[in-house]
User: What shape does this take?
Amino acid sequence: MIENRSLVIIGSGPAGLAAAVRARKSGIDDVLLLEREDQLGGILKQCIHTGFGVKIFKEELTGPEFASRYIRKVKELGIDYRLDTMVISMDEGKNITAVNPRDGLVVYKAECVILAMGCRERARGALRIPGTNPSGIFTAGTAQKFVNIEGMKPGKTALILGSGDIGLIMARRLALEGMKVKAVCEIMPYPGGLERNIIQCLEDFDIPLRLSHTVVRIHGGHRLEGVTIARVDELLKPVPGTEEYVKCDMLLLSVGLIPENELSREAGIIIDPVTGGAIVNQNLETSVEGIFACGNVLHVHDLVDYVAIEAERAAKSAVEKIKGKGKDPKKRIQITAGNGIRYTVPQIIDYYDENEKIKIYFRSSDKLDESRVTVTCKGKNIYTKKYKRLIPAEMEYIKITASDIKGRKVIIEAEKR
Amino acid sequence: MKKEMICIRCPKGCRMNVEYENEKIIRVTGNGCKKGEAYAFDEIVKPMRIVTSTVRVVGGRLPVVPVKTSIPVRRSIIFPVMQEIYKASVKAPIKEGQVLIKNPADCGADVVATLGMEKTGTKDD
Assistant: This one.
């Protein structure tokens, strides 16, 4: 069975929900939202803490509340969605093969596709920590699901490796539920998560943050009994003689997220090796025409509000394409992440209109106090912005005007002032 | 006394220097707006937090429902509030925003559901 659709959105987390609502409101009647779980909302379902919606709703909501605002809109607008539906393949012709228990195997032929599949977590295997393989080692998000959705306690005493936001949030969550959190170890000399989480998740609960520390060995038979931690040097190598044994029956890993781009690769979409997401232009269109990407499948965000804003941008672009308003660009400009910049999104600017203001999101590659971000093309500075502090954990953006760009290449750099 | 502090009232995260004595703020610098002064006062004089957790559910689609305190509560009262949350158990169905525990530990806030929860066997479709 083949169904034709103007727009298919894969994933119903914050990106998919926001994109679906925006596209439907812009007049696309046959939006289809595909979700592999049995509820809409994606990761928001298990993020029961507050901090969502400050930008969009001007109030601080929990994850489930943020999701339900969009889910209500999806239902009010009569947007078609399929739960329990797993997309198993996608090709460059935008044929999407999906399976679910009700319809069996279905192929959707889409005019446009929005990728909103989000991320999965890096697991122990990616870290190559020596030692045994006992139970009690969880990614932070898995532990979060156990505690917040299934109502279980995954252990009694925890050590958390990685100070990403999920790890910090889980440190507080375990402490609240009466579990002991011995420490959060971070291999880098600075924390990976947002400042508010350092204060409200660690300092409030007297949980030590051990910067420049990592886990060097795992101990235990059937169940985790403890881990050995050690300090690392500037090259992130463990320093002999600094080992400490920490007794614990849980090790939570908050060591990074990996955009889930198997489907994108299959469709021939070019992936940025740094972000792990698609290479896109300012309309968030990937290298395959008519396929757009937004949210954590494109690059990892720190705030869900930015995910929703990005998703609306992708939806707007897809709607223009479907309505035939898409134009051909006059030229294509490559953005290079130069010194001090880890990556930019978009990576490409398509030049349509000289007055267009182009928003470029970026992360710095290191902590830079009193710094300056510059954009140059053909050796000439076309933009400068000063920052009190840049840290890789916090995404920033700049806005440049299309007419300032001469040539086909711009370089964005960050340096100390 | 001096304390370096990052305002977390909005995602901008202004880096502030706060001078204070006992529980009196003398000077706040580095804040981008008035919210910064208020934040410094709150953090030093009376830190408040919204507590989020889960409450056990009987007969619901899931075994627990996410909850929050309706307004921020004093940081020092978080664990007494949690004691009440541990003890609580509510019957499905539950509406989003429904009060599940009234004024636990006399904290001045109610514990409310942040998710609607249908009875077991029903499905959102």
Notes: Strands of chain B lie at 2-6, 15-21, 24-29, 48-49, 52-58, 64-69, 73-74, 89-91, 99-101, 111-113. Chain B touches chain A through 31 residues (CB under 8 Å). Chain B has two domains: 2-46, 52-113. Chain B has a mean pLDDT of 91.
